[in-house]
Amino acid sequence: MIRVERDVLARSAKTGLWSRSSETAFYLATTAIPAVRAASAIRDHWKIENTSHYTRDVTMGEDRSRIRCNPGLFARLRSFAFNILKANRRSSLPQDRYRAAIGGVDYLLGLLNIPQR
Fold first, then answer.
1. Beta bridge partners of 7
2. Cβ pair 100, 85 in contact under 8 A
3. Percentage of residues in the chain with pLDDT exceeding 90?
4. What are the sequence ranges of the domains in the chain?
5. CB 8 within 8 A of CB 34
6. Whether the Cβ atoms of residue 18 and residue 9 lie closer than 8 Å to each other
7. Radius of gyration of the chain (CA)
């Protein structure tokens, strides 16, 4: 078992002020590993969480999705679009997503250099 204590800074949207708190997280490892390796694995996990999952949840609205029939298919389509936009980033992801929404499928295909129909 790995125990990590960390300080967290949170900004209040209402006041704009920062508040500091501390939290303790526990991780389970199946084998004994050195602290340096554990810290690296935890940082790598949160790097993926903050760059990919958070963006998919917030920008792509994945958690708000009401799709109940074949949700895995639509998650893959969102991932496909997310990866295209990320590889061809021109500005912020929400702005690129808006641009892609206006351009439609042909715009996304143009980013991939795939000939249109």
1. 22
2. yes
3. 22
4. 34-111
5. no
6. yes
7. 19
Total Cβ atoms within 10 A of residue 81? 17
Helix (H, G, I), strand (E, B) or coil at 14: coil
Give the chain's length.
117
**pLDDT tens digits, one per residue of 39-57:** 999 989 888 777 777 777 8
Give the pLDDT score at 116: 59
CB 88, CB 111: distance < 8 Å? yes
CB 1 within 8 A of CB 28: yes
Give the tokens for residue 82: 């997310």
- The pLDDT value recorded for residue 57 is 80
User: In this structure, what are the phi and psi dihedrals at residue 26, rounded to the nearest 5 degrees?
Assistant: -120, 135
* 59-71 mean pLDDT: 81
**What's the CA gap between 44 and 48, in Å, rounded?**
6
Can you name the residues that pair with 6 across neighbouring β-strands?
23
Q: What are 110-113's contacts with CB under 8 Å, separation 24+?
A: 111/84, 111/85, 111/87, 112/84
Does the structure show a pLDDT above 80 at 34?
yes
